[in-house]
From TrEMBL:
The protein's enzyme class: hydrolase
The protein, known as: inositol-phosphate phosphatase
Pfam family, one: Inositol_P
InterPro entries linked: Inositol_monoP_metal-BS (IPR020583), Inositol_monophosphatase-like (IPR000760), Inositol_monophosphatase_CS (IPR020550)
Keywords: Hydrolase, Magnesium, Metal-binding
Statement: the UniProt record of this protein carries the keyword Metal-binding: yes
Gene3D superfamilies: 3.40.190.80, Fructose-1,6-Bisphosphatase, subunit A, domain 1
Catalytic activity: a myo-inositol phosphate + H2O = myo-inositol + phosphate
Leader sequence segment: none
UniProt EC number: 3.1.3.25
Amino acid sequence: MIEDNETIDEFLARHASDVEEAIRKAAATEIMPRFRQLAAHEIDQKSGPHDLVTDADRKAELYLTEVLPALLPGSVVVGEEAVHAAPASYEALQEEAPVWIVDPVDGTRPFVRGEPGFCTLVTLARGGVLLVSWTYAPALDRLAVAIRGQGATLDGEPLRAGSPDPGRDLVIATSHPDYTTEEQKRALLGLWTDGVSPRACGSAGLEYLAIAEGNLDAVAFSWEAAWDHAAGLLLVEEAGGAHLTLSGEPFRITGGNALPFTASRDAATARRVVELLAGRA
């Protein structure tokens, strides 16, 4: 595992290419052969019609669950599908052992519809600190990597979120209403105001990437699932962006956040979005 005298840099120097290879192989062998080829029996609902799981999700996660801990002995995997089957496994995020946070197919609904807007998300964290993340969109062949304190890249080129253009409406991707409480719905209504153009979100991972690229100003999300947010939050941070919860504190991947929260291209935009959500604008 990452020993006390070994840095994340040293681990990545040995194994970054292995992690990338594992992610690409999971997509090549388990996800892309099923893209636009899914049979009805390969698609199931979890909590409802907007919460889908496919054989691609399950098999890609199983593959990554086998490969990633072998690269880092002593580490564990917190994966979306495994947690659905055994909710207590989510508690590993609170422990000190290194954790691989895995969303095998982020954007399952677009994947099922045969649209390319989905990705595989992998993040390495320890003690609640996000260390490195990979966001891979296999249908688009785009790979974004973020390393704490070292910046973010997309296909090897540096990412900088920049700041929104003055005078232009803020474009903000928001949670689907099915995933919000009545109180959160009221908070999100604060975004329906002059100077803001809210829209429904797609794959969370790709929305975070859009922020890091400077193609989206912010997101406003109302759920905490670590596999949806870990990779993107680090990506946005390392591209120069910021994230804040309704209480004005950064989002904690270990939970207990005041929701909704935002990730934004810069700190000023994050503060503005929280003000709108809190009704203080």
